[in-house]
Each structure stands twice: as structure tokens, then as C-alpha cells.
Structure of Alcohol dehydrogenase:
Amino acid sequence: MRVLEYIGTRELRWREVPDARVVDPGDAVVRPVAATTCDLDRAVIAGRTPFPAPLQLGHECVAEVVEVGDEVSGLVAGDLVVVPWHISCGTCATCSAGAPSRCLSVPRYAMFGLPLGGAWGGLFSELVRVPWAAANLVKLPDGVGPAAFASASDNLTDAYGSVLKGQTHAPGAPLLVFGGTSIGLYACAFARALNASRVVYVDASERRRAIAEGYGAQAVASAADLDQREFPLTYDASGHPDGLTAALKATEPGGHCHSAGIYFAGVTVPTGPMYMNAVTFTTGRPDITPHLPAVLALVAGGEVDPLPVFSDHLTFDLLPETLALLPEKPLVTHG
């Protein structure tokens, strides 16, 4: 079978490896049918991360179940499933507490698509072995094609979970989003679905502002265009330190700021104003499986439509050439 490898800045290749197979009785083997890049993948391909090449890419996909082990219940060959980015057992203390991203049964940071916590492969592969399949794979609802759920493995569900935290803390509170990545757009969609009274989106990109407006947000090109200086809830999805700083400074006293950004270099944050204003700041890798049922229901029910966020439609066969061009948020299928 083929796996997609990152081998250097804007260089990718297909490599032949032995077919994925069931190793343990709780395993499943799946075939990705609709995939996309995580916002982090673009940085990896552009050579802006500390991860060494070569590495197998991909941790967002819907897949078809090909084979299941003898101890896998609730799944059969042919099922379409979301494959979460994290590797987790589903039964340890952290998994049971709703934090599968910190599973105690695997090395820390274990995941698909990056060489962290073991060699688990990537989801831009022809076949993928998924351990603890019954605890991880979540079947798609009827009536919605796999493309709509391609990002549910990470970015889509990440946006839901972090917006939910804010709306749980302050129900109905307005949200200010500093965008620049797909997560910021998904955050706009979920904020309206979760009854935020107002969503304001800041992004220099005209294309992304139009998508945010389609999700019911007020969109402006820069923070200078805002008609409100402070918000109880702010969200950094800019992928840039300036966006993080702007989000923190725009958080009102007692408010909450969440960042979906991954900053590998040192970043200066305004800790003085944060302290004086009692700002709560959160960040971190998302827990996917606990939130997937709600995300799938919102998409299947028509309350959230992820499809407008996709920037391109690519095919698996041409991924080495097309991903090297750094498309923003491509939908990848077999045709």
C-alpha cells in the first residue's frame, strides 16, 4: 500500500509499505475516503515546524472500515467512520474523564500524522490500522456524505469543543474570533449554533470573511475596524503571535480567551493586563471522541455546514504535487 510522506520543505512523495493489518483483536483496518489537512499540516509542509522529515502525513479523515478484529463490537466492514487524530484506549483514567488526547495507555502525544508518541502512520494512506477501534471510530449518521465530516477528526470538532466551553461559562455571550485558519471559521459556525448573541470575525482575507458572514458573523478586516473594544469571549485562530496578543488584549475583565494556535517559537503575551483583568486563557490539543456525537448531529441536522470552508477539491493520487502548493483547506477524495 502507499503512504504519503513529507520529505522536506514543500516536498512530498508516495512510499510503498506493507499493507496495514489487524494486529490485536481490538484493531480495525480502514480506508480513508474523504480527508483534509489540519491547519498544522500546512505549516509542516512549508517547513515551519520542528518535526524532522521524513514523516507520514494526515490526521483528518472519514474512512471505510475494511476489516475488524475479533473483539471489535459495533463496527462491520463497509461502515463509514470518523477517525480521531489521537490514539486512545477509551478506558484509562484520562479517557474515562473525557480526555482521550492524554490517554495513559500509549506514549504521551501519540497521534496519527506526526512522529509523536510512536509510529502510528498517517491518514493520507491507502490503509490505516486503528487500535481500540470500538472506542475510537464513530460511525457517520445516515443521509450526509463523508465530505462534510472530513475535518471532524480534529479542526471541526476542536472548534466545537472550545466554543462550547466558552458558551458554557457565559451562555449567549458574544464571541470575537481572530481568524486565518479553518478553525476560526468553524468557530463562527458553532458559536451561532450554540446561541452566541453575536459573533465578530477579524481576518484580512476577503474569502474567509465572506465564509464567516455566511455563518452569521459580522466580519471585519482588522481589529481597528471593530465597533466594540472588549468581549467576554475571545478566540485566537490566527496562527500568528499578533493575533494571539490581539485576542488577549480584547478580552474583557473576567473574560475567557482560547487559542487554537500552535506556536513553536517563543511568544510574548501581555501577562500584565491579563493579570489586572483576571483573564482566563486556555489552549491545548482537543479531545475528539467525547464531542463527535454532538458535532455529527449538528452537521446532519443542517445547523452547521462545514463544506464552504474547503478551498480546493483534490484527489488522493495527486497529493504529492498538490499539497506542496499549500492549499488552504483542501477536500481530498478518490475522484
About this structure: The mean pLDDT is 97. The radius of gyration is 19 Å. The chain has two domains: 2-154+287-333, 156-283. The chain has ten helices and 16 strands.
